[in-house]
Amino acid sequence: MNKELTILLAEDDEGHATLIKRNLKRSGLLNKIIHFKDGQETLDFLNQAKKKEEYKDSIPSLLLLDIKMPKVDGIEVLRQVKQDPKLKKMPVIMITTTDDPREIDNCHELGCSNYIAKPIDYDKFVDAIRQLGLFLLIVELPEIKD
């Protein structure tokens, strides 16, 4: 994985966000993680990033996206990202407590790269995030260009 890749984390639950960041780092992932507390913050950041010179050719990001968030939910963030020509190749991994098969199908139809249901059990949640971190260490992500 490109070590310069920035991980964007859209998660309104501060406790979940802290657990995710801590356990990605414990798995060996040293990438910069930028945390957003709602979908609107996430979209605002991405829209600003597209205008900046350093992102002219690519937006080096992976988005970890919660579904149930204030202002703009994760489904709408996913929809907007995948409809945007500059952002559509950005990998988006849904991380949510919802394991409804219809919602999972909807996210995949909209273009999410993967869908992880947050286990309610603390230890299982920690383990799932560490496994995600290990996966991200080895996966090759697409270069995102115009």
From TrEMBL:
Organism encoding this protein: Draconibacterium halophilum
Keyword Ubl conjugation: no
Name of the protein in its database record: Response regulator
Source domain of life: Bacteria
PROSITE patterns in the record: RESPONSE_REGULATORY (PS50110)
Keyword Manganese (UniProt): no
Family matches, as Gene3D superfamilies: 3.40.50.2300
Modified sites of kind 4-aspartylphosphate: 66
InterPro entries, alphabetized: CheY-like_superfamily (IPR011006), Sig_transdc_resp-reg_receiver (IPR001789), TCS_response_regulator (IPR052893)
GO biological process, one term: phosphorelay signal transduction system
A Pfam family: Response_reg
Sequence ranges assigned to domain Response regulatory in this UniProt record: 6-133
Cited CDD domains: REC_Rcp-like
Keywords, in A-Z order: Phosphoprotein
